[in-house]
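Run log // design_07
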């Protein structure tokens, strides 16, 4: 039961965290680290809204192949940033024409429909009637202006998304490299034609006005919100976690010299599997996907390593997963369908 409603605004009070980067509030690595720190400190009965912005950044899902989703070299040569988040889903471009939001709550209070309604009501404040579409999009007149992704721990969860206010279609097309199968599934020719900015429907919208609308809608939905400024324990932990998010190993992920590669778009997301095989044994495996669930890809990777690269041992592993009761139905489906893809490709 929710008993405390918070809005976190780290830049509204206190000194900046020691060692904070020069672009401060627009640092993608610090913003992602803050989400994790806030989740780690979340108390029972609390729900929290965190609003933030990144500058010239491509943010990819936890299990995506950054080199397929983004023109990494071009982005970084032109002063942009690549960031990898904890949640699943696809790649997005962030600049100061966007506003990002994060809802954080304990598992028992986490309600995706209720949280998403806060966004719908905030947008409605400007006379825009939006709707939820597909697995995680929010659209207006069939065009996407917001996408959501989710991260769950044993005790707490967050839902975060991006609100496109003023879209820069040139940068989106320049830095994002979207798979053609994904575009075909959406019925559009390019990522630019699929998205829109809210200023096209309400020219008076600004980032500050949208922040106020979100905070007002949040308070109406959950009760009077306490606006919390700089919290030293959160900021200290975030600065420590920032090192992970800014590290090359986290941003770029693993890269293997693969023997086999296979790719397919399923109803739950686009998936690419790479296998390195030596003397008939799978010695390395990499699974890249924009699926919303982040749990099954590492399970598949770990299970494949050490197996003979033959249909029979793969079939036996598939049968084990069919009987598995610990996995969610969605994760089980993803594992089984991914295994079928591997066996069809051998």
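design_07 sequence
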């Amino acid at each position: 039961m929710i008993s405390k409603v918070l809005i976190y605004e780290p830049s509204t009070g206190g000194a900046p965290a020691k060692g904070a980067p020069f672009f401060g509030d627009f640092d993608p690595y610090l913003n992602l680290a803050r989400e994790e720190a806030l989740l780690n400190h979340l108390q029972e009965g609390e729900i929290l809204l965190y609003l933030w912005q990144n500058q010239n950044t491509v943010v990819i899902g936890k299990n995506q192949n950054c080199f397929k989703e983004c023109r990494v070299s071009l982005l970084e040569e032109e002063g942009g940033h690549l960031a990898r988040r904890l949640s699943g889903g696809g790649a997005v471009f962030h600049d100061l024409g966007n506003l990002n939001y994060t809802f954080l709550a304990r598992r028992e209070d986490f309600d995706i429909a209720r949280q998403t309604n806060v966004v719908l009501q905030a947008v409605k404040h400007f006379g825009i009637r939006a709707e939820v579409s597909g697995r995680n999009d929010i659209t207006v007149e069939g065009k996407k202006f917001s996408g959501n992704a989710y991260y769950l721990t044993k005790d707490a969860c967050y839902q975060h998304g991006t609100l496109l206010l003023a879209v820069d279609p040139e940068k989106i097309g320049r830095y994002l490299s979207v798979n053609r199968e994904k575009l075909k599934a959406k019925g559009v020719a390019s990522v630019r034609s699929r998205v829109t900015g809210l200023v096209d429907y309400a020219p008076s919208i600004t980032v500050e006005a949208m922040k106020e609308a979100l905070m007002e809608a949040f308070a109406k939905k959950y009760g009077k919100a306490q606006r919390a400024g700089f919290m030293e324990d959160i900021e200290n932990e975030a600065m420590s976690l920032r090192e992970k998010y800014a590290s090359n190993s986290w941003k770029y992920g693993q890269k293997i010299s693969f023997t086999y590669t296979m790719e397919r778009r399923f109803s739950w997301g686009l998936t690419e599997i790479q296998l390195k095989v030596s003397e008939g044994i799978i010695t390395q495996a990499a699974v890249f996907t924009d699926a919303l669930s982040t749990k099954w890809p590492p399970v598949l990777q770990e299970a494949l390593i050490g197996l003979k690269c033959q249909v029979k041992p793969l079939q036996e592993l598939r049968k084990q997963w069919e009987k598995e009761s610990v996995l969610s139905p969605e994760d089980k489906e993803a594992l089984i369908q991914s295994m079928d893809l591997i066996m069809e490709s051998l």
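The longest strand covers residues 143-152.
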